[in-house]
């Protein structure tokens, strides 16, 4: 589930969602990465953002069994070796529980506020992911890697992201339908990890949106995603209030328990 390290309830949400994930036996919590809430980002999501590395470190202490994911870590925002060191540190301190969706970012206003070039973000991401991966695998002098390499997933949608995913440990698409996921999976090596992030809208108007609608609708969608290659489902929320998020995640856990198991 998404850790929701943002918004006026972010401090409470990080701890509460981590504890809830552990209680309901979910597999992982995933944090988002924003530094400056500029332009459309601030208008849509608010100004309050907690650093994903710090948020996941706190979650690691509140839920010792969970994987800790980045959804996504925006590589053009930071130099590659400090990013690799932070990932390696979290990997060691958590006992090898980190997985990182790595992406290029989308907020042009945030890039401008950080003094980074928006147009070259794809090329910068390709360059930095190579350095980060090499560091985490012990291929850079004077950089001690973690005991267990951090899996890197290409975050986002589109042809360039799929090409990047084929070279990394998997793909982290955003808000795709089962059919769209299947089309992407067909372009990846067999057995690649596919961690889809999408919203849950239990009881909300469906309008052809997966994971919206009745519990039966959601159960059918979950089965379709599994059939079409999703290995990890990263659940974001249509609900805003933290109490409503908890209600929906408890209901989703019940739906998952009723699904047939292979």
Question: What features would you highlight for this structure?
Answer:
262 residues; alpha/beta; 8-stranded parallel sheet; globular
Report how far the terminal alpha carbons are from each other. Answer: 22 Å
Largest sheet: 8 strands, parallel
Unreliable stretches covering 5 or more consecutive residues: none
Specify the structural class: alpha/beta
What's the Cα radius of gyration?
A: 18 Å
Rounded mean pLDDT is 95
Brief rundown of the structure:
The chain has helices at 10-23, 39-45, 52-62, 80-94, 108-114, 121-136, 159-167, 178-185, 215-227, 242-258; strands at 28-31, 67-74, 98-103, 152-155, 170-172, 193-202, 212-213, 232-237. It is α/β, with parallel strands linked by helices and 262 residues long. The radius of gyration is 18 Å and the shape is globular.
Question: What does this 3D model show about the protein?
Answer:
The protein has 262 residues and is α/β, with parallel strands linked by helices. The chain has ten helices and eight strands. Strands 1, 2, 3, 4, 5, 6, 7 and 8 form an eight-stranded parallel beta sheet that branches. Helix 7 links the parallel strand 4 and strand 5.
List the helices and strands and how they pair.
Layout: H1 10-23, E1 28-31, H2 39-45, H3 52-62, E2 67-74, H4 80-94, E3 98-103, H5 108-114, H6 121-136, E4 152-155, H7 159-167, E5 170-172, H8 178-185, E6 193-202, E7 212-213, H9 215-227, E8 232-237, H10 242-258
Parallel strand pairs: 1-2, 2-3, 3-4, 4-5, 5-6, 6-7, 6-8
Helix pairs in contact: 1-3, 3-4, 4-6, 8-9, 9-10
């Amino acid at each position: 589930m998404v850790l929701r390290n943002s918004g006026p309830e972010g401090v409470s949400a990080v701890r509460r969602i981590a504890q809830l994930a552990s209680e309901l036996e979910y597999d992982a919590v995933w944090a988002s990465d924003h530094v400056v809430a500029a332009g459309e980002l601030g208008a849509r999501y608010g100004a309050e953002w907690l650093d994903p590395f710090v948020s996941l470190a706190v979650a690691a202490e509140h839920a010792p069994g969970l994987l800790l994911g980045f959804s996504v870590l925006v590589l053009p925002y930071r130099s590659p070796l400090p990013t690799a060191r932070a990932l390696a540190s979290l990997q060691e301190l958590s006992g090898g529980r980190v997985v990182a969706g790595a992406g290029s970012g989308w907020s042009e206003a945030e890039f401008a506020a950080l003094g980074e070039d928006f147009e070259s973000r794809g090329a910068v991401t390709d360059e930095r992911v190579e350095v980060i991966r090499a560091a985490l695998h012990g291929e850079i002098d004077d950089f001690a890697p973690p005991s267990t390499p951090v899996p890197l997933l290409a975050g986002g949608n589109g042809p360039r992201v799929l090409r990047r995913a084929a070279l990394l440990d998997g793909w982290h698409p955003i808000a795709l339908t089962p059919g769209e996921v299947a089309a992407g999976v067909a372009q990846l090596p067999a057995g690649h990890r596919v961690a889809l992030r999408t919203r849950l809208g239990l009881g909300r108007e469906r309008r052809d949106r997966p994971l919206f609608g009745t519990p039966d609708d959601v159960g059918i969608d979950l089965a379709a995603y599994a059939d079409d290659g999703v290995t990890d489902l990263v659940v974001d929320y249509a609900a805003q209030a933290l109490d409503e998020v908890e209600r929906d995640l408890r209901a989703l856990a019940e739906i998952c328990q009723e699904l047939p198991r292979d």
